[in-house]
Amino acid sequence: MAAPKTKSPDGQKAAGRIAGVLTTAIPVVLLTGLAAGAGTLWGMRVVGTVEDTVKHRMEEATPHVVVNPALTGTFVLKKLAPVVTNLAGPGNAWVRLEASLVMEQKAAETADPLAGAITEDILAFLRSVTAAQMQGATGLKNLREDLSERVAIRSKGLVRDIVIETLVIQ
Predict the structure, then answer these.
(1) 120-129 residue pLDDT tens
(2) Which of 38, 41, 84, 93 has its CA 20 to 30 A from that of 27?
(3) Is residue 15 situated within a structural domain?
(4) What is the full DSSP assignment across 55-109?
């Protein structure tokens, strides 16, 4: 008769280790999968809510544009050549001004000689201004008013306004 097979102590230890790892790994894998699924569902819900809230706030915050009737119609911007010159003071100060003229489209088509004359006037005016006179918001406002006045005189009413695009003082 054959003797019953007995398990060796090493085999029992190995089977016990495998069973211990499986009893630990299976719940960890299941809980990780459950957490990933719950996180995904919750994230989709939150993203949808945030998108709806942002869209709603943007619709509410849309500014109501009021059109100035004096500037509607066929007005265009006529870009002037950049003006670079030295200032009246201090001696080493330079200024670069880029501007555009607001004028009617019909007048803009033949305004190249006028734009050249206005550029010359701006150049002559900037040579008489000091850097201190252009400091701050008040200085910029005064410069814009002075340039608008010179442009109105030179253009005899053809130019509605001047737009200062860039002003660099160095």
Answers:
(1) 999 999 999 9
(2) 41
(3) yes
(4) HHHHHHT-------GGG-SSEEEEEPPPEEEE-SBSTT-EEEEEEEEEEEHHHHT
